[in-house]
Every structure is written in C-alpha cells, then in structure tokens.
From TrEMBL:
Cofactor, free-text remark: Binds 1 FAD per subunit.
Database matches in Gene3D superfamilies: Nucleotide-binding domain of ferredoxin-NADP reductase (FNR) module, Translation factors
Record-linked Pfam families: FAD_binding_6, NAD_binding_1
Keyword Iron-sulfur: no
PROSITE patterns in the cross-refs: FAD_FR (PS51384)
Protein name according to UniProt: Ferredoxin--NADP+ reductase
Any one GO molecular-function label of the UniProt entry: 2 iron, 2 sulfur cluster binding
SUPFAM superfamilies with a match to the protein in the record: Ferredoxin reductase-like, C-terminal NADP-linked domain, Riboflavin synthase domain-like
Essential cofactor(s): FAD
InterPro entries, per the entry: Cbr1-like_FAD-bd_dom, Cyt_c3_hydrogenase_gsu, FAD-bd_FR_type, FNR_nucleotide-bd, MRET, OxRdtase_FAD/NAD-bd, Riboflavin_synthase-like_b-brl
Length: 214
C-alpha cells in the first residue's frame, strides 16, 4: 500500500461524503475499486473509484456506518491527513469501445452510483440512462454531474424524485431495446430482481453486468 494525502472532503449528507486524495498517477479502469486503510491500523475497506479516469485526483464516495470500525474514522479525516491505498482491483470495468451497442442502462441503489459517476466523468458523451434508487431525495449524490434528462431518481421515503418506488418497480414499467448494455450496482436483492426483470424484457444475459455493493 502507498500513502496518499487527502486533499479535500465534500460532505453530501449527514452520513455521506466524498474523500479526494492525491492520485499519484495511480492507473485504473472506470468501475474498478481501491482498498483504503488508515496508517497504523489493520481495518480496511473497498471503495469503487468515484472520480474519472482523466482526473488528476482520486475520489471515493463513503457512507458512514455508525457502528462500523472504518467509516466513522474516515468521516473525521481532514485535508492533510493520509490514507494507505492499494489497488486498483475488480472486473466491473467500462469502456464504450468494448460494446457493439452504444446504448447503456445504469441502475444503482445508494452509493452504488459510484462507478457510474466515474463512467460519465470519463466518457461525458455517452448515450445512457441512469436509474438511481434512494430513500430520500437528498441522497441524489451529485446528480449535477450527470445530464439531467438522462437520470431517473427513484425515492421510497419522500416524493422528491422522478418516481416514487423502488428502482425495480420503475424498471418493470419500461420498454428496453434488446441490445441495451445494462450495468447494475447496489444491494444483492436489487440486483437479482433487476436481473430477472431485464431478462424477462428480452435483454440477453451477456449484456447484463453486475457489482454487488452490500
């Protein structure tokens, strides 16, 4: 692991924040993750890279788990502090040139939006539709970085989104072209339900890519 200095912290909600660190020319593919650890400790966590592949910094999106051993301490860190970084790792990689079709569907719950933020920051001209499921509208993490017309915010705890209900309920109402490339990132229950809905709608299994977050 190498030491990377924290250069900025953005608080998005009471429990969710972005840590920006020195990149130090760390190479990664969009969709990959890194492992973070506080110096002198053994506890570590995996975080998908939130920043774009062309950015000269490294960002991760973190949600505090109050009873956890890592995230409450990460929340207290400030610019100038250091973290040990290892990686990158993972196969949830994305490059538009990899796919015969250039129509993309991104489905996320909570902080599962991280890889898609990296996708769009790296490839801003993508033809995509992002479906993001959260409880409250305030958890629409930095949606301003996406094209507004390309996002559907699904909320279950208030009516501030575009659709009140779960992402799977929204997907069930949609017509999809069979060659759409579909990427799912979030909790395992959502991924399984969304996978079943997409295949029932005619999406080929080989066109569905998944990353379980929690």
């Amino acid at each position: 692991m190498k030491l990377h200095q924290i250069t900025a912290v953005r608080q998005l909600t009471d429990s969710t924040f972005v840590l920006q660190l020195e990149r130090k020319e760390l190479p990664f593919h969009t969709g990959q993750f890194v492992i973070l650890r506080r110096p002198g400790t053994i506890e570590q966590r995996e975080y998908t890279v939130y920043s774009g592949a062309k950015d000269n910094f490294l960002e991760v999106l973190v949600r505090e788990v109050t009873e956890g051993k890592v995230t409450p301490r990460l929340k207290k860190m400030q610019p100038g502090d250091q973290l040990e970084v290892d990686g990158p790792f993972g196969f949830f990689r994305f490059n538009p040139k990899m796919f015969p079709s250039q129509k993309f569907l991104f489905v996320a719950t909570g902080t599962g939006i991280s890889p898609f933020h990296s996708f769009v920051k790296t490839y801003p001209s993508l033809d995509y539709h992002l479906v993001h499921g959260v409880r409250f509208g305030e958890e629409a993490y930095e949606h301003h970085d996406f094209n507004k017309q390309n996002i559907t915010l699904c909320t279950t705890g208030d009516k501030t989104g575009n659709f009140m209900g779960r992402v799977t309920q929204f997907l069930a109402t949609q017509k999809l072209e069979s060659d759409t490339q579909c990427f799912l990132c979030g909790n395992s229950e959502m991924i399984q339900e969304a996978f079943d809905i997409l295949t029932e709608k005619g999406i080929e299994v080989q066109n569905i890519y998944t990353e379980v977050y929690f």
